[in-house]
Design a protein that fits this description.
This protein has 427 residues and is mainly alpha-helical. The protein is built from 18 helices and six strands. A hairpin with a 7-residue loop joins strand 2 and strand 3. Helix 6 runs antiparallel to helix 7, helix 7 runs parallel beside helix 8 and helix 8 crosses helix 9. The protein is globular. It starts with a strand and ends in a 28-residue tail after the last helix. Bound molecules: acetyl coenzyme *A.
Length: 427
């Protein structure tokens, strides 16, 4: 039986339907509230507002659980591959062997960019941040692939999703190559998704590039860990941009712009800079005191939804150790600082009280640095991996017949109506 909630304003009561999902908090349906009562709800930061209905990803922040289409992130990270997770997010089910072979081939055969697109990169200054290049380049895809921007055609939506997943590694690798002044590397169809990306990033004409299975696996796992995270800031940006009917490439460019911020995807870059700034274990207490004095935040710590250990951070920490054992220095001073900082913070009252745990960004920076990526590439890699989540959420929005343009309301606190005063009569 459907439950109702009652809202009383003055002498009038309004019945609001309570809707249950398969799991997670119930929601109070306020869609007709304004029509019936003339009031809005007020929730800046969306801390209590479900902006959409979704079947893709579920997070239980208190329990530290993350599920994609019902499958725990740990099981996917250890047993699946990024491309299989892409298929799952986009289509709702794990693929059969034949479906996977077909999907793998489709993505592989879409990795090349239009030859004219390469000229686009040279318009940027050589010291441009890769995220600036990514935002511009991904938005520009709509100027190159006109045949897949009709958002009302499911087939075109599918093709644009495949194009985005396939071309992001090529664009991200080019953004990196451009920033270091090295020639672009063409994708190769005989390599896996992660291998292909690593080769496009690190191969140079003067030296053969050899795959390293530990690094390939780490790259693939990092992509899986960042693939989707339900209605976070960048995903909500993609959905909001898409709600107006904007083309998918423009919507993903909007998501990339949002991801760039230090409170979101930019945190991995900031977390590594923080570890560098601390430098040595003996400086941690002084740094932690600065956090408590609210001079700065501990980057890579805290999350709007997780009030427990981020399950992605656990896998990331393990991957970090594997990578450092393979190519880095397991005694890397930054790793020592990270582990000690984590230990101190997890036991310190300030952090315990506020339920501040390491998030996925805390260990990803050290791992990516050991793999050879400069800090400026960290968020670009996040954008590459999150593209599948963004486009799956965007696709889901279009498949919902109740889709409406996103249009939040406001609590207006500005001046009341007043008359214009000519400039010579002011003040
Ligand atoms: N370091 C120190 N204190 C913190 C931190 C932190 N990283 N995060 C939150 N707090 C404190 C706040 O000062 C506040 O304390 P108060 O109640 O005494 O004022 C309390 O914890 C709650 O903080 P809010 O800002 O209200 O929490 P919110 O849910 O809005 O913020 C956020 C989440 C933005 C992620 C925050 O924890 C943060 O800034 N973390 C650092 C940046 C970061 O790592 N971002 C990555 C997020 S994960 C991702 O995008 C993949």
């Amino acid at each position: 039986m459907a439950e109702n909630a009652t809202l009383t304003i003055g002498n009038t009561s309004y019945d609001l339907q309570v809707i249950k999902g398969t799991t997670g908090p119930d929601v109070i349906d306020v869609r007709k509230l304004y029509d019936e009562s003339g009031v809005f709800t007020f929730d800046p930061g969306f801390t209590s507002t479900a902006s959409c209905e979704s079947k893709i990803t579920y997070i239980d922040g208190d329990a530290g659980v993350l599920l994609h289409r019902g499958y725990p992130i740990e099981q996917l990270a250890y047993n699946s591959s990024f491309l299989e997770v892409c298929y799952l997010l986009l289509n709702g089910e794990l693929p059969t062997a034949a479906e996977f072979a077909d999907f793998d081939k489709t993505i592989t055969y879409h990795t090349m960019l239009h030859a004219q697109f390469d000229r686009f990169f040279s318009g940027f200054r050589s010291d441009a941040h890769p995220m600036a290049i990514m935002t511009g380049a991904v938005g520009a895809l709509s100027a190159f692939y006109h045949d897949s921007i009709n958002v009302d055609d499911p087939e075109q939506r599918k093709i644009s999703a495949h194009r985005l997943i396939a071309k992001m590694p090529t664009i991200a690798a080019r953004a990196y190559k451009y920033s270091v002044g090295q020639p672009f590397v063409t994708p190769r169809n005989d390599l896996s998704y992660a291998e292909n990306f690593l080769r496009m990033a690190f191969s140079v004409p003067a030296e053969d590039w050899r795959p390293n299975p530990v690094l390939t696996r780490a790259m693939d796992r990092i992509f899986i860990l960042h693939a989707d995270h339900e209605q976070n800031a960048s995903t909500s940006t993609v959905r909001l941009a898409g709600s107006s009917g904007a083309n998918p490439f423009a919507c993903i460019a909007a998501g990339i712009a949002c991801l760039w911020g230090p409170s979101h995807g930019g945190a991995n870059e900031e977390a590594l800079m923080m570890l560098r700034e601390i430098g040595t274990v003996d400086r941690i207490p002084e740094y932690v005191q600065g956090v408590k004095d609210r001079k700065y935040r501990l980057m890579g710590f805290g999350h709007r939804v997780y009030k427990n250990y981020d399950p992605r951070a656990k896998v990331m920490q393990e991957t970090c150790h594997e990578v450092l054992k393979e190519v880095g220095d397991p005694d890397d001073p930054l790793l020592k600082v990270a582990m000690e900082l984590e230990k101190i913070a997890l036991n310190d009252e300030y952090f315990v009280e506020r339920k501040l745990y390491p998030n996925v960004d805390f260990y990803s920076g050290i791992t990516l640095k050991a793999m050879g990526f400069p800090t400026t590439m960290f968020t670009a890699l996040f954008a590459l991996a999150r593209t599948v989540g963004w486009i799956s959420q965007w696709k889901e929005m279009f498949e919902d017949p109740r889709r409406k343009i996103g249009r939040p309301r406001q609590l207006y606190n500005g001046p009341l109506q007043r008359d214009y005063v000519a400039i010579d009569k002011r003040g």
